């Protein structure tokens, strides 16, 4: 894959994901997978990008008044330690490709707006439900090297616990915390730094900052969503069938 194409994809993905409160890990993994970048190279970089982009999204949505501590605390209590543990068991080979390919179905569905519709009225989050979902989603996030926001957002909306904007704010902080836990967990593992890592980091952070700003102010980008969903669908098919 042309290096310039990777740069463009990372910028667009970070812009798009940050606009809905996500860090973009699943998208970055899709691009790196298509480009043939090895897992040891992109694994820590993906988490680092996730941290910076989700932090930017969190600050923008919080500033806009959409963040609620009581909505996210129950999830974090169990997700952070479970993400740390999950990151200790990195999947490799065919099993990793299959699970990651299946995980990409979630962001593709979100990009195409095929997920759950927003409830008119939000319900109170039961503590036990938050703890259980947090543990499961946190472990999955650590295992798959993502922040878990692609799983949390649909849950919050489907269960009627948050509006779309509240979900975006909560997911951004959820991703931030789980990505930090995952990165700390793998710090002792050896990994390689790609020659273009700093360029990839810069463009992803720039796109994330802009996306978070526009997303928190009701910015819409329907055409871009469809194009990026198509790119990710190709990566998903590559992981699952080739």
TrEMBL record:
<keyword id="KW-1003">Cell membrane</keyword>
<keyword id="KW-0812">Transmembrane</keyword>
<dbReference type="Pfam" id="PF01925">
    <property type="entry name" value="TauE"/>
</dbReference>
<keyword id="KW-1133">Transmembrane helix</keyword>
<keyword id="KW-0472">Membrane</keyword>
<feature type="transmembrane region" description="Helical">
    <location>
        <begin position="95"/>
        <end position="112"/>
    </location>
</feature>
<feature type="transmembrane region" description="Helical">
    <location>
        <begin position="132"/>
        <end position="162"/>
    </location>
</feature>
<feature type="transmembrane region" description="Helical">
    <location>
        <begin position="71"/>
        <end position="89"/>
    </location>
</feature>
<feature type="transmembrane region" description="Helical">
    <location>
        <begin position="41"/>
        <end position="59"/>
    </location>
</feature>
<dbReference type="InterPro" id="IPR002781">
    <property type="entry name" value="TM_pro_TauE-like"/>
</dbReference>
<feature type="transmembrane region" description="Helical">
    <location>
        <begin position="198"/>
        <end position="218"/>
    </location>
</feature>
<dbReference type="GO" id="GO:0005886">
    <property type="term" value="C:plasma membrane"/>
</dbReference>
<protein>
    <recommendedName>
        <fullName>Probable membrane transporter protein</fullName>
    </recommendedName>
</protein>
<feature type="transmembrane region" description="Helical">
    <location>
        <begin position="168"/>
        <end position="186"/>
    </location>
</feature>
<dbReference type="InterPro" id="IPR051598">
    <property type="entry name" value="TSUP/Inactive_protease-like"/>
</dbReference>
<comment type="similarity">
    <text>Belongs to the 4-toluene sulfonate uptake permease (TSUP) (TC 2.A.102) family.</text>
</comment>
């Amino acid at each position: 894959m042309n290096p310039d194409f990777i740069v463009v994809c990372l910028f667009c993905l970070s812009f798009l994901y940050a606009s809905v409160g996500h860090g973009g890990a699943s998208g970055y993994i899709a691009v790196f997978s298509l480009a043939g970048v090895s897992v040891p190279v992109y694994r820590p970089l993906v988490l680092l990008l996730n941290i910076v982009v989700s932090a930017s999204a969190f600050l923008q949505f919080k500033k806009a008044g959409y963040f609620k501590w009581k909505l996210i605390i129950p999830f974090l209590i169990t997700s952070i330690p479970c993400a740390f543990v999950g990151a200790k068991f990195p999947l490799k080979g065919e099993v990793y490709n299959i699970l990651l390919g299946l995980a990409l179905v979630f962001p593709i569905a979100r990009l195409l707006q095929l997920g759950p519709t927003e409830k008119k009225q939000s319900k109170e989050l039961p503590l036990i439900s938050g703890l259980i979902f947090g543990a499961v989603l946190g472990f999955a996030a650590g295992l798959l090297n993502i922040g878990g926001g692609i799983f949390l957002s649909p849950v919050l909306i489907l269960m009627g616990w948050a509006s779309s904007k509240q979900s975006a704010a909560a997911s951004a902080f959820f991703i931030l915390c789980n990505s930090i836990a995952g990165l700390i967990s793998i710090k002792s593992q050896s990994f390689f730094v790609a020659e273009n890592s700093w360029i990839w980091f810069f463009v992803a952070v720039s796109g994330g900052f802009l996306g978070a700003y526009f997303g928190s102010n009701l910015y819409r980008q329907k055409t871009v969503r469809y194009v990026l969903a198509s790119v990710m669908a190709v990566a998903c098919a590559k992981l699952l069938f080739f």
